[in-house]
Each structure stands twice: as structure tokens, then as C-alpha cells.
Amino acid sequence: MQASFAIVLVGLLSSGPVVADPPAAKDVGPSLFETGRVAGTDVAGKGLRIEQNRPSRALPRETPVAAVDETESAPAPAVSGVIDRTELSREIHARFALLNSCPRDVAHRARVSRAGLRASRLVLRWTILPSGQVAETGVVATAPADPRVMDCVKRQMSIWSFARPHDGAVRVERPFHFK
Question: I need a surface site. Which of 65, 105, 140, 160 has the fewest CB within 10 A?
Fold first, then answer.
């Protein structure tokens, strides 16, 4: 009688009909369908003790890290190449024109006004590899500049490619002014 009353009561409270599976013979105690509770607990009883793995109050020891010898960094490409200055200037001018969109793009993504981003003058450094690809890009602000704008410029620089220099890589450094 109680089991059918609970099923009817649950069926009335829910939005649709409730179909209850009869409890299996191996189940012990009333089922969820009979009581509407996940498990029966005795509030006045001791309950279950949950062991917690509490960290000790002593701080863990840090593993010492050996200092890096800066002279053992990856070798920089040999800078002995030659590149046509006229062609390089033309290619740089075309790429610099695309950099002017960085403040606008950053302002759009950050949902701030373009006037809220500081960016005016930068010094750009990069190496043109013998393949024409760019490596060792660097952006230095010579006037206050928003770091997000500088990151955008550096990302743009990393995908540049130029005419192949002769006899090795070429390092380039140019000032850049946002328009």
C-alpha cells in the first residue's frame, strides 16, 4: 500500500507518468522508487567517517633548479647575407601597412575604444633566413605601448616572408610608427 502511494504521489508531482521497475529480489531495503530517497540514513546515528588526506602543515621542499648558462642557447643564424635594399624597402613598406590594423583589431577583441589603447612608436627587429622566412622577431616600444598591440605586431611579423637573401641570413631593424 505504501509503495503504490509513493509511486502515485511522485507521478502526481512530476510532469508525466512514472513507470517504476519492481525491486529485484537481491536488493535490501526499500528502493528509490518506493521511498523517493536515494538512501536511508540514521541522523541520530554515528554515520560514516570520511577520511581526509590532509596535507601536513610543513611546506613541501622545493627542488632546486640549476641556473641556465645563457651562452648555451641555440646558435643564432650566421648573419652574412646580402639582400637588395630597394626590394627589401618595398617589401617592408607593404608589411608595415598591414601592421596599422593591430590597434583596431586589439580594440575590437578587447571591446575598448581605439583611443584607449596606447601605441605609437615601436622598433621592430627580425632576421630573414636564407629561405626568406622570418625568425628572431622582436618588438621594442620607444613610446608607451599596450602589450596586446605589441603581441599583435609580433604575431604578424612571425608570418612574414621576404625575398631570399644571398649568402646567408640578414638581420633587419626598422622604426615603426602607427598611423
Answer: 65
